[in-house]
């Protein structure tokens, strides 16, 4: 269950990054509200996942999902450059997230 919470937290991280961009320095009310709600949800879910997951692994997975997700949204919705290197970099982030998920961890 902790992994599900962590993945959803990563999706909310992507949403709060997009909302932050769309808020235009907090001058657009609803995008600003979206940022606050998504950030709060993301941190709350990350916090819940940290009850059972190792902090280093959980934080790396959370930021990886957020970074990769935000890069993809940027390319699809905001016209960010789509290059082979950017796609390879996103795949490397995804590979790291998968590897951390597969790595054994001791439960404390």
Automatic annotation (TrEMBL):
A Pfam family assignment: Multi_Drug_Res
Any one GO molecular function term: transmembrane transporter activity
Major location (coarse): membrane
InterPro entries: EmrE-like, Small_drug/metabolite_transptr, Small_multidrug_res
Membrane topology of the entry: Multi-pass membrane protein
One of the record's GO cellular component terms: plasma membrane
Transmembrane helix in keyword set: yes
TM segment ranges: 27-46, 58-78, 84-103
Keywords from the named record: Cell membrane, Membrane, Transmembrane, Transmembrane helix, Transport
Subcellular location: Cell membrane
Claim: Transmembrane is one of the keywords in the record: yes
Family note: Belongs to the drug/metabolite transporter (DMT) superfamily. Small multidrug resistance (SMR) (TC 2.A.7.1) family.
Name under which the protein is recorded: Quaternary ammonium compound-resistance protein SugE
UniProt source species: Geodermatophilus saharensis
């Amino acid at each position: 269950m902790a992994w599900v919470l962590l993945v959803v937290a990563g999706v909310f991280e992507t949403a709060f990054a997009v909302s932050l961009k769309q808020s235009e320095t907090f001058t657009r009310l609803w995008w600003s509200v979206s940022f606050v709600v998504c950030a709060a949800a993301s941190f709350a879910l990350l916090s819940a996942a940290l009850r059972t997951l190792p902090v280093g692994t959980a934080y790396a997975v959370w930021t990886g999902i957020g970074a990769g997700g935000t890069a993809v949204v940027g390319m699809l919705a905001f016209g960010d450059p789509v290059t082979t290197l950017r796609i390879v970099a996103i795949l490397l982030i995804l590979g790291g997230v998968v590897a951390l998920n597969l790595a054994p961890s001791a439960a404390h």
